[in-house]
Structure formats: structure tokens, C-alpha cells
């Protein structure tokens, strides 16, 4: 399949990556080659095959509704790149 | 005494006898590490002080004859995508810079309880994406057998550290061969257990449905001892199986009589290096001599495993890696204007090229209009692959294949052609897609002195049978006992020592 | 031209579990920012979700009560998007195989009875809260709400008026409260509603272009926004303009909806099956067990109260509208209070106090035992009704002991005919004119005399006793 730079732009926006022009051009070509190769799967007739999301017949794994202690706030915030005593900080979010 | 020729179990026995102290073992590892690190770059973080403190604690247990496991006091290390409380965990990525988890992975907790002594965190491909350990933000790792070659990946630091003798075993992760392939390239033994038998809690996810942690060590018996510690149901991992755990080491018999071993012809065809083919077929002969029944058979789904794997792994990765955005942990870019700018700049500058390639690929195969053609299709083919392996295991107890088409490539050879690199994963990825146990054992050396690995694959939950066959092979051979040359020492067999 | 408004609802309901959907952190409302959090709900690397069994149970119970079919094999999916209130950058939700589907809810409005079809009901996790701090010009992300369990209930576009929407929401709230799966407090955001609305010429088969309204946090806001938005769309169409498919925000103060700034990129959530959570397979036995646990709902209780206690339909409707009131009623009756008296008190004084204090029935501390005691005191003639109301008002807030209060304040009713007689003599002496009037046949004078006696006795006399004694004395006089 032909992969255009517009398609790469679209997935870049979705994945919050902003590639410089040169990198984008190279990536476009690489993705096209990779996706072309993936088309070998089309040789298989899978019309009757149920997609398999989980390999094992593992079912109903549940946890009891029992409160466990939360973490101390400083511990949770210790890795935040922009510190504040009570929260993670981000630039203004627009409604 | 050169402790580095010992297996983890042999070293553990010395510690329990008292002929070596835990501090002595830790120091032996750390000395070797200091000697090798400058060249191999196998470690991202070395926790020397912690290790020595820990050695004292474990020594008290040893003195009291209360060793909690056969591995008590044996120095080891974790791949740097495994969370360790209070110790920097980076995934070899710039974007996680400075991240110090306030929690332990379940495997780390279990090994801690078993008396492990961790020397630090091991280098890897960034976010475990790569087959050479060249995508690390912290620089590539060199193969201890030949510093001009890669150690394989993504657990390249783990395989190199075990091969060079800095640690006696390491915990790696394997999403498409990331334990088995570097083990093969570095001449050590590496096992990816059945999906769900080792808790993934605390393993920074690459592809959740395929990721599994496992040991890299000097022998199958060492791997069994490590798995005895780390396997078992964990309530914190919903995909962890409620299967019996433990008893792998004590269950080793070395008996493969009448075991039916299948050789998929599709794994021995075009693209496989002749010396690798010969070494793996020779391994089959060894097992035959010990009484196994070896037979070739056809497994045509092999031609679909790589695209299926890369679609699924990239799709899950694109989602799993979205949380790295410079808000909650890790590195944040400077000079952004607004929220979107913060996200774009942090992620674009924080991730390396291979990671970005897989994120874009994964985003594409999940996006509107392409989901059915790629992602859903891959899940359907995955079902067919699983079915083909189920059928094979109705006829065979185990499968034997190469681990990689060639021995370790030269540094810098692989990254220019990502598709070519993906294709080299052909023998390992199906094991992850079908959730099976697979082990890589050293089975010989190529004429250039580089190690070759053979892979034994078992049915789901057939970890014991896989280990036992590998053990049988190692009772008969000594490839796994070879050690690479120390810096400045001549290689044992055609090694390119410098 | 006559226009028809077509409305569908997406309602998010917070489940009343003790812990979050995928970790053991508490779901308690409030709390300082980021104090009800752990590595799982803040999306720290390497952490994994494990489903809370109560979430599954509550979701299935809700689905059964809404007459849904339960998906026997269901799964979770990931909905991927970047926003700082979503620390994993994906929400674990259900797209492909929601837990329940194809339900129906019967509602009644002034226009008559109607069935609203439920398209689906699915489980998902809530997001965090973002609060902008203008002082530092930064937004604070608080993840206490992250991972609080929600069910989203999606209806078919079956509503034609705001009345129907409100009737449905009241029914939904009552049902979920009776089940005990949610407290449905709109002001705490535990019941939130998105309204999808379009208009079309009456009788037209095709649906018009719809808008989605968010930020609706009261029934009043929902009703007003529907009226506003329908009018806005009709005006546009009548002016020959198009309705743009968009998300609009209701502004309570301006009484209008406004288009929300569209996110800079297309919404492409890239849903795919959540690999960290194995599928769910619900057995017949599990569903049977939950069915057997379904409590008696409002309608059944209404019927029972009418049959067993002979209460008027109006009373039963009022009392059962909120489960807490119905439970209160039943407990008071169980303590021996006559049903009609209890019902009168609930509809009058109790609801009056609740609304005056802006309280929800379930938060009331005043006990059924206290009400039963008040009623008994009135019945026994120890308290007159007016004093009882005063006692009620005094003890309502803290549920003080009724007897102790009455005693402490000396409110017990005077039913001693002798004492009343003495007071009557004094009143007669002071009001000879009234006695004459009474004798002349002016019944009003009798009322005045009764009032005077009551006043002398500070209202603590049993009015029946006063009347009896006065009549007797006047006849003798």
C-alpha cells in the first residue's frame, strides 16, 4: 500500500510525535516497506477465524472489593518533572 | 579461583558450604563488572553499595543455615525495564530519565525473598524494541565474544553480563525473542517461560499480550532454579496463571528417552546460515543419541509469524507507551508553548527512532480504516498460528529450531534496515504469539568463534519438559561451559579478542 | 412547520463500590488532591489493572434491573487519547462486547406511558480532575477520581421531550438506588448525563444532525438545556442554516449552550482489546445468584403499600420515589406506628425539613424510631400534634431522644380534667361576654374559650380533653 506523508502526519498527531521533515520522509518510506511486507497475511483466508486477543483460556480474574492503603502523596509525586506539593502540573488545559 | 566459570547453582553451593562469603561473591561480580563495563556497557546502573549491604544480610541467613533458596547470595541483575524500588529504572530511554519506582516488580520481590543480591540494572534496547541493544539511549552493548559485534537484543546487557561473568544470572524480558536471541549470540542459556507463569507486575510493558520475563544464566539447571523462585500466580497481574509453580530444578532428570522432538522444516530453509543449521541439526543428533525420537515436519505458518508479531506488538506498544508524556514521571522537554506542545516535544525528543517507528506503525494499524485490514487480521492469523502449534504438539513433545538465522551481526549493521532486522526474529516470535515456553541453549560455535544457539519449544505449561531436554543436552555437551576471553586475553576459539 | 425533538442519552453512573475498578484505593468522595491514589491508578510504568469483583456484580445487577440482555462472554477494550486527566493515556472501557445490551425502561409522563430502549450498558474507569490555577497559570491534575468505577448507560434516541428525559432519569436513579449500586448524587458527579439531540419535521423518517451536550449536572439543567438546544436548532433550520454536528457545553449562568472548541485533531480512539484483563465469562449460576438478589423496586413497593396498608396511590408514589424514604417508612411501621400517620409525617414534616435543609433523604440522621415514638406520644395523648411537630423540628438534625427532649422541656400534654376545669373557671371569670355569646348560640365563642384555656396551659393540653371539660362546664353553668 502507498503510504503518504499525510498518512504519517495523521498518525503522528494521534501519537503526539512531531517528526522533523527529514525524519518524516525517511519514516514514510520505511513504514511503506514494512506495511507492504505485512500484506503477505492477505494470502490467508481468515473469514471464518475468530480474532484471538488472549492466548489462554484464562477467565474471570477478579479482585475482592477491599480497600488497601493508598500511597503517600509525596511518593506518588516524587517522579513528576514539574513539582508541586499536591498535584501534577501541566500547561493550561482548554475546555 | 575463577568463579566466573561456575554456574549460579555451583556458586550457591559454595556459599552454603561457607567456602565463599556472600560479600566475596558480590565483590567477585563487581570486580569483573568494573573490568568489563568500560568495554561491554552491559549495565546502565550499578548498585554497588546496596549490593554489599545486601550481601551482609544474606550472609546472616547463610550463617544460620537458613538459605531461602539454592540461589541465596548469588549475584545477579535485572534488565532495566523491571521496576526496582528506589533504584533508577530507565528502559534505556531518555524519556524515563531519572525515574525511580516507588514499588518493586513482583519478580524482584520474590528474588529478594530468595536471597538474591542485585548488582544493578542492565542495558537493553530502548523499551525492549530491537534485536541488537543498539537502540539504547545509554549506548550500545558489545558482545563479550567479539566487541565488534552486537550481543543481540533486546536483553543484550543481560546476556553480555552473564557471559562476561559479572553476574551468574540475570532477569530479562522476552516479547519476541529478547531473552533467547541474545542468549544465543552470547553463548549462554535463556528461557522464556509460558505466558502467564511469571507475573508481569512491574515489568514496563512493551506488548502486554506477548511480554514475559525469564532467566538468562549459564545452564538450564540455573534457569530452572530461577524459575522456581519467580513463577507462580500473582494477584496483582490479571493474566497470571493459577498453575502449579516450583519443583523445576528438583524435577530435572536429563532423560529424553522416547521424547518426540519435531524439527519444523520451515525453520531450516532459505535465509538460515549454513553453520547455524549444521550446529542445530547436530544438537538434534545429540538428543537422538540420548534416546529422543527426532523427526522433521512441515509448519507452513512460519511464513506469517513475523508480520503478525510486528502488527500486534506495535499496536500494543503504541498504547502502552502513550503514558510517557512528561507529566507524571521521567523527562520533560523544555520550550513548549502549550499542552500539545509539551506532549509533542517531550515524546519526539524523548523517544529514539526505533521506538517512534513502532509507535507510528502501531497507531496506524489501529486507526480508523486500517484496524480490520491489519490489527484484526493479525489477531486472526495469531489464532491460526496457535492452532498450528497446538496440532504440532499433538504429534511432538518438543520442537527444536534455530534461535536466529545467523550468529551475532557486527555493530551498526542492522539499524539501517529495520525490516531486515524484524525478519531476523522469525524463529523466536511464534513462541510469544502462542504463549509457549522456549529455551535457547548454546549448541556450538561458528568458524568465526561466535556462539550459536538452539531453541527448544514446548507446549503451554510444558516448561519442565523444555528445561529437562535442555538439561539433557547440556549433560552431553560443554558449549554452555565456554567463557569468552577476558579483555586482553586470547579467545578460546577464534575469538576476536582485543 | 411542526418540529419533533429526538433525544438520546448517555448516562455515566458512578458505582458505590468501596474501592476503585482496578486497584484497592478508596472511592471516597473528596479527600485532598492525589491522596486516594497508588501506582496503578496513576498509570505508573509496569503496573497492571485487576478487575474489582463488585464492579462486575453491580454492572450486571444494573443491567438486569434495566431489562438488559447480559453478554455472557465480555471483554474490556482500550480507548486511546491524550489528556492530562487520563494518566495511562487510555481509558479502559468496553466497546466491542459491552456487559449488557438491549434493555428497556418504562416511564410515565403527563403525555402517557412509554418505553425507552437501552442500547447498551458498559463498565469503564473514571478520569481525574483538572483544576486551573490562574495564579501560577498551570493546571493541576488530581487523580483521586481516576479509576473510580462507572457504568455508562446508552439509550436509543427514543425521547421526544425534556419531560421524558427527566422521567427516565428519575426512574433510573430510583432503580439504581434501590439496587444499592450507586447513590446517584448529581452534585458529586456520581450521575452525569450527555444529551444527544436533533430535530426533524414531525413525521419525517430520517434523523436530523445531532449535537451532544455536556456539563449537565442537575435535572433542571438537563430540562432547560434540552429546551434551549431544540429551539436553537429549529431556529437555525427555519433560517435555512445547517445544524453542525458538534459537542456543546451547557452554561448554567448564561442559560445557553456553547460549542466546545473542537480538539485540534480528529477523534480516532483506536479501540482494541485490553490485553491486561482476561475476558469475562459469566455462568448461568452467577446470573441466577444476582437475579435472586434483586431487591423489591419502587413499583413493587408502591403496590404492596397500597395493598397491605391501604395507603393512597399518591402517598406510595411519594414515599417510594426515594429508597431511603421507603426504607424509613417501613422501619417506622415495623415499630408499630400506623402506616397512614407515618406516611403523613414523611410527606409533610420530613420532606419539608429535608428540602429546607437541602438534604438528601439518605443522608438524614433522624431515625424511624424517633418518628414512631412521636406518633405514639400523640396517640397516647401525651403530646398534642402541634407540640409533636415542634419536638420533631428540634430533634431532627441530631436525632435526639424524643422522650428526653419532651421531659427536659416539660412539653408533656395536660390531660388532667381537674386541672383543665380549674383553668376553665378562671377563663370563664375573665370572659363573661363569651359565655353569654355561647349561650346565645354563637359557636365561635366556644372556639375562643378553648383557645384561652389552651393558652393558659401553654398549648400542652389535650384539645379533646379541653373541649370535653368546657362543654360540660358550660352546660352546667
Automatic annotation (TrEMBL), chain A:
Pfam families reported in the protein's UniProt record: GatC
Q: What NCBIfam families has UniProt attached to this entry?
A: gatC (TIGR00135)
Instruction: Please list the reactions this protein catalyses.
Output: L-aspartyl-tRNA(Asn) + L-glutamine + ATP + H2O = L-asparaginyl-tRNA(Asn) + L-glutamate + ADP + phosphate + 2 H(+); L-glutamyl-tRNA(Gln) + L-glutamine + ATP + H2O = L-glutaminyl-tRNA(Gln) + L-glutamate + ADP + phosphate + H(+)
Q: Which UniProt keywords apply?
A: ATP-binding, Ligase, Nucleotide-binding, Protein biosynthesis
Family statement drawn from the similarity comment of this UniProt entry = Belongs to the GatC family.
Q: How does it assemble?
A: Heterotrimer of A, B and C subunits.
* MF annotations from Gene Ontology: ATP binding; glutaminyl-tRNA synthase (glutamine-hydrolyzing) activity
Write out the GO biological process terms.
Answer: glutaminyl-tRNAGln biosynthesis via transamidation; regulation of translational fidelity; translation
Q: What is its EC number?
A: 6.3.5.-
Q: What is the originating organism of this protein? A: Lawsonibacter hominis
What lineage does the source organism belong to?
A: Bacteria, Bacillati, Bacillota, Clostridia, Eubacteriales
The task this protein performs is described as: Allows the formation of correctly charged Asn-tRNA(Asn) or Gln-tRNA(Gln) through the transamidation of misacylated Asp-tRNA(Asn) or Glu-tRNA(Gln) in organisms which lack either or both of asparaginyl-tRNA or glutaminyl-tRNA synthetases. The reaction takes place in the presence of glutamine and ATP through an activated phospho-Asp-tRNA(Asn) or phospho-Glu-tRNA(Gln).
Q: Give the encoding gene's name.
A: gatC
Top-rank EC class of the record's enzyme: ligase
Q: What is this protein called?
A: Aspartyl/glutamyl-tRNA(Asn/Gln) amidotransferase subunit C
Q: State the InterPro entries in the record.
A: Asp/Glu-ADT_sf_sub_c (IPR036113), GatC (IPR003837)
TrEMBL record, chain B:
User: What are the UniProt keywords, alphabetically?
Assistant: ATP-binding, Ligase, Nucleotide-binding, Protein biosynthesis
Q: Which GO terms describe its molecular function?
A: ATP binding; glutaminyl-tRNA synthase (glutamine-hydrolyzing) activity
Catalytic machinery residues: 79, 154, 178
Chain ranges of the Amidase domain: 28-467
Q: Where is this region: Disordered?
A: 477-498
EC number, as in UniProt = 6.3.5.7
Q: What class of enzyme is it?
A: ligase
Record's catalysed reaction(s) = L-glutamyl-tRNA(Gln) + L-glutamine + ATP + H2O = L-glutaminyl-tRNA(Gln) + L-glutamate + ADP + phosphate + H(+)
What are the record's GO terms for cellular component? glutamyl-tRNA(Gln) amidotransferase complex
A Gene Ontology BP annotation from the UniProt entry: translation
- Family assignment from sequence similarity: Belongs to the amidase family. GatA subfamily.
- Cited HAMAP family: GatA
Main function: Allows the formation of correctly charged Gln-tRNA(Gln) through the transamidation of misacylated Glu-tRNA(Gln) in organisms which lack glutaminyl-tRNA synthetase. The reaction takes place in the presence of glutamine and ATP through an activated gamma-phospho-Glu-tRNA(Gln).
Complex formation: Heterotrimer of A, B and C subunits.
Name of the protein in question: Glutamyl-tRNA(Gln) amidotransferase subunit A
Q: What is the lineage of its organism?
A: Bacteria, Bacillati, Bacillota, Clostridia, Eubacteriales
UniProtKB/TrEMBL annotation, chain C:
Q: Gene3D superfamilies from the xrefs?
A: 1.10.10.410, GatB domain, N-terminal subdomain (1.10.150.380)
UniProt-listed Enzyme Commission number(s):
6.3.5.-
Instruction: State if Transit peptide is listed as a keyword.
Output: no
Against SUPFAM superfamilies, the record matches this protein to: GatB/YqeY motif (SSF89095), Glutamine synthetase/guanido kinase (SSF55931)
Is Translocase one of the keywords UniProt gives this record? Answer: no
The Gene Ontology biological process annotation of the record reads: glutaminyl-tRNAGln biosynthesis via transamidation; translation
Q: Name one Pfam family in it.
A: GatB_N
Q: Which GO terms describe its molecular function?
A: ATP binding; glutaminyl-tRNA synthase (glutamine-hydrolyzing) activity
PROSITE patterns cross-referenced by the UniProt entry? GATB
Q: Which InterPro entries match?
A: Asn/Gln-tRNA_amidoTrfase_suB/E, Asn/Gln-tRNA_Trfase_suB/E_cat, Asn/Gln_amidotransferase, Asn/Gln_tRNA_amidoTrase-B-like, GatB, GatB_C_1, GatB_Yqey_C_2, Gln-tRNA_amidoTrfase_suB_CS
Domain of life of the organism encoding this protein: Bacteria
Q: How does it assemble?
A: Heterotrimer of A, B and C subunits.
UniProt lists the family membership as follows: Belongs to the GatB/GatE family. GatB subfamily.
The record's function comment reads: Allows the formation of correctly charged Asn-tRNA(Asn) or Gln-tRNA(Gln) through the transamidation of misacylated Asp-tRNA(Asn) or Glu-tRNA(Gln) in organisms which lack either or both of asparaginyl-tRNA or glutaminyl-tRNA synthetases. The reaction takes place in the presence of glutamine and ATP through an activated phospho-Asp-tRNA(Asn) or phospho-Glu-tRNA(Gln).
Q: Please report the name of this protein according to its UniProt entry.
A: Aspartyl/glutamyl-tRNA(Asn/Gln) amidotransferase subunit B
UniProt lineage: Bacteria, Bacillati, Bacillota, Clostridia, Eubacteriales
Identify the gene encoding this protein: gatB
Amino acid at each position: 500500500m502507498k503510504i503518504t506523508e499525510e498518512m504519517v502526519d495523521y498518525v503522528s498527531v494521534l501519537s503526539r510525535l512531531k517528526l522533523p521533515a527529514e525524519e518524516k520522509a525517511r519514516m514514510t518510506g520505511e513504514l511503506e516497506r514494512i506495511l507492504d511486507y505485512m500484506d503477505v497475511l492477505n494470502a490467508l483466508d481468515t473469514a471464518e477465524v475468530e480474532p484471538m486477543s488472549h492466548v489462554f483460556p484464562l477467565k474471570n480474574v477478579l479482585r475482592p472489593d477491599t480497600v488497601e492503603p493508598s500511597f503517600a502523596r509525596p511518593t506518588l509525586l516524587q517522579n513528576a518533572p514539574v513539582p508541586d506539593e499536591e498535584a501534577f502540573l501541566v500547561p493550561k488545559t482548554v475546555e | 579461583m575463577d568463579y566466573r566459570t561456575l554456574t549460579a547453582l555451583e556458586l550457591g553451593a559454595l556459599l552454603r558450604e561457607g567456602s565463599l562469603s556472600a560479600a566475596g561473591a558480590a565483590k567477585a561480580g563487581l570486580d569483573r563488572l568494573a573490568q568489563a563495563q568500560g568495554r561491554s556497557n552491559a549495565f546502565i546502573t550499578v548498585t554497588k553499595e546496596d549490593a554489599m549491604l545486601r550481601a551482609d544480610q544474606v550472609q546472616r541467613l547463610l550463617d544460620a543455615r537458613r538459605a531461602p533458596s539454592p540461589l541465596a547470595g548469588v549475584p545477579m541483575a535485572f534488565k532495566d525495564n523491571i521496576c526496582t524500588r528506589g533504584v533508577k529504572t530507565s528502559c534505556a530511554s531518555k524519556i524515563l530519565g531519572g525515574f525511580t519506582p516507588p514499588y518493586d516488580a513482583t519478580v524482584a520481590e520474590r528474588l529478594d525473598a530468595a536471597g538474591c543480591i542485585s548488582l544493578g540494572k542492565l542495558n537493553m534496547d530502548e523499551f525492549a524494541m530491537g534485536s541488537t541493544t543498539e537502540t539504547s539511549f545509554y549506548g550500545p552493548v558489545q558482545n563479550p565474544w567479539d566487541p565488534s559485534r552486537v550481543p543481540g537484543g533486546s536483553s543484550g546487557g543481560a546476556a553480555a553480563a552473564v557471559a562476561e561473568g559479572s553476574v551468574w544470572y540475570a532477569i530479562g524480558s522476552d516479547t519476541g525473542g529478547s531473552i533467547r536471541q541474545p542468549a544465543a549470540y552470547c553463548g549462554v542459556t535463556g528461557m522464556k517461560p509460558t505466558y502467564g507463569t511469571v507475573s508481569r507486575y512491574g515489568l514496563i510493558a512493551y506488548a502486554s499480550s506477548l511480554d514475559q520475563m525469564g532467566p538468562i544464566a549459564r545452564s538450564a539447571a540455573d534457569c530452572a532454579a530461577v524459575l522456581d523462585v519467580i513463577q507462580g500466580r500473582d494477584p496483582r497481574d490479571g493474566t497470571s496463571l493459577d498453575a502449579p509453580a516450583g519443583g523445576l530444578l528438583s524435577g530435572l532428570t536429563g532423560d529424553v528417552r522416547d521424547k518426540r522432538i519435531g524439527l519444523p522444516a520451515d525453520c531450516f530453509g532459505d535465509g538460515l546460515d549454513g553453520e547455524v543449521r549444521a550446529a542445530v541439526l547436530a544438537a538434534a543428533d545429540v538428543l537422538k543419541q540420548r534416546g529422543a525420537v527426532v523427526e522433521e515436519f512441515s509448519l507452513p505458518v512460519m511464513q506469517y509469524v513475523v508480520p503478525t508479531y510486528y502488527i500486534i506488538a506495535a499496536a500494543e506498544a503504541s498504547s502502552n507507551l502513550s503514558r510517557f508524556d512528561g507529566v507524571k514521571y521521567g523527562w520533560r522537554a523544555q520550550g513548549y508553548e502549550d499542552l500539545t506542545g509539551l506532549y509533542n516535544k517531550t515524546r519526539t525528543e524523548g523517544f529514539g527512532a526505533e521506538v517512534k517507528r513502532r509507535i507510528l506503525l502501531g497507531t496506524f494499524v489501529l486507526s480508523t480504516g486500517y484496524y480490520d485490514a491489519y490489527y484484526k487480521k493479525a489477531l486472526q492469523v495469531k489464532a491460526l498460528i496457535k492452532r498450528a502449534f497446538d496440532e504440532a504438539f499433538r504429534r511432538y513433545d518438543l520442537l527444536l529450531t534455530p534461535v536466529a538465522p545467523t550468529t551475532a551481526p557486527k555493530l551498526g549493521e542492522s539499524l539501517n534496515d529495520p525490516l531486515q532486522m524484524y525478519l531476523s526474529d522469525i524463529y523466536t516470535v511464534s513462541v510469544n504469539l502462542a504463549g509457549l515456553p522456549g529455551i535457547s541453549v548454546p549448541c556450538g560455535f561458528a568458524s568465526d568463534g561466535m556462539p550459536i544457539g538452539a531453541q527448544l519449544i514446548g507446549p503451554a505449561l510444558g516448561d519442565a519438559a523444555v528445561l529437562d531436554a535442555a538439561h539433557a543436552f547440556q549433560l552431553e555437551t560443554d558449549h554452555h561451559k565456554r567463557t569468552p576471553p577476558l579483555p586482553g586475553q586470547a579467545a578460546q576459539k577464534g575469538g576476536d579478542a582485543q | 412547520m411542526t418540529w419533533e425533538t429526538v433525544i438520546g442519552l448517555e448516562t455515566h453512573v458512578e458505582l458505590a463500590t468501596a474501592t476503585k475498578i482496578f486497584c484497592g484505593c478508596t472511592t471516597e468522595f473528596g479527600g485532598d488532591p492525589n491522596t486516594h491514589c497508588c501506582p496503578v491508578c496513576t498509570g505508573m510504568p509496569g503496573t497492571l489493572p485487576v478487575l474489582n469483583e463488585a464492579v462486575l456484580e453491580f454492572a450486571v445487577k444494573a443491567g438486569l434491573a434495566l431489562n438488559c440482555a447480559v453478554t455472557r462472554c465480555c471483554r474490556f477494550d482500550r480507548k486511546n487519547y491524550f489528556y492530562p486527566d487520563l494518566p495511562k493515556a487510555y481509558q479502559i472501557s468496553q466497546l466491542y462486547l459491552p456487559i449488557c445490551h438491549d434493555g428497556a425502561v418504562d416511564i410515565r409522563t403527563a403525555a402517557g406511558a412509554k418505553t425507552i430502549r437501552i442500547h447498551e450498558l458498559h463498565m469503564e474507569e473514571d478520569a481525574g480532575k483538572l483544576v486551573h490555577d490562574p495564579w501560577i497559570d498551570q493546571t493541576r491534575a488530581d487523580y483521586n477520581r481516576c479509576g473510580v468505577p462507572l457504568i455508562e448507560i446508552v439509550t436509543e434516541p427514543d425521547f421526544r421531550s425534556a419531560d421524558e428525559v427527566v422521567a427516565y432519569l428519575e426512574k433510573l436513579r430510583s432503580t439504581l438506588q434501590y439496587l444499592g449500586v450507586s447513590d446517584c448524587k448529581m452534585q458529586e458527579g456520581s450521575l452525569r448525563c450527555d444529551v444527544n439531540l436533533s430535530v426533524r419535521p414531525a413525521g419525517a423518517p430520517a434523523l436530523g444532525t445531532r449535537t451532544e451536550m455536556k456539563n449537565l449536572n442537575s435535572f433542571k439543567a438537563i430540562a432547560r438545556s434540552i429546551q434551549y438546544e431544540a429551539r436553537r436548532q429549529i431556529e437555525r433550520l427555519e433560517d435555512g442554516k445547517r445544524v453542525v454536528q458538534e459537542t456543546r457545553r451547557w452554561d448554567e449562568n448564561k442559560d445557553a449552550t456553547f460549542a466546545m472548541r473542537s480538539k485540534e485533531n480528529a477523534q480516532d480512539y483506536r479501540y482494541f482489546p485490553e490485553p491486561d484483563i482476561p475476558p469475562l465469562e459469566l455462568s448461568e449460576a452467577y446470573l441466577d445468584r444476582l437475579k435472586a438478589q434483586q431487591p423489591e423496586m419502587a413499583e413493587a413497593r408502591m403496590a404492596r403499600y397500597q395493598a397491605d396498608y391501604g395507603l393512597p396511590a399518591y402517598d406510595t408514589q411519594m414515599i417510594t420515589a426515594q429508597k431511603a424514604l421507603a426504607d424509613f417508612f417501613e422501619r417506622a411501621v415495623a415499630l408499630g406506628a400506623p402506616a397512614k400517620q407515618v406516611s403523613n409525617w414523611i410527606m409533610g414534616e420530613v420532606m419539608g425539613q429535608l428540602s429546607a435543609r437541602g438534604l438528601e433523604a439518605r443522608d438524614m440522621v433522624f431515625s424511624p424510631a424517633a418518628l414512631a415514638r412521636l406518633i405514639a406520644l400523640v396517640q397516647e395523648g401525651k403530646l398534642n400534634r402541634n407540640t409533636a411537630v415542634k419536638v420533631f423540628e428540634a430533634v431532627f438534625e441530631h436525632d435526639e431522644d424524643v422522650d428526653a427532649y419532651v421531659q427536659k422541656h416539660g412539653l408533656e400534654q395536660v390531660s388532667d380534667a381537674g386541672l383543665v376545669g380549674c383553668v376553665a373557671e378562671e377563663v370563664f371569670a375573665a370572659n363573661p361576654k363569651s359565655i353569654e355569646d355561647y349561650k346565645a348560640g354563637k359557636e365561635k365563642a366556644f372556639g375562643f374559650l378553648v383557645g384561652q384555656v389552651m393558652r393558659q396551659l401553654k398549648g400542652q393540653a389535650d384539645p379533646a380533653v379541653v373541649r370535653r371539660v368546657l362543654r360540660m362546664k358550660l352546660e352546667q353553668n
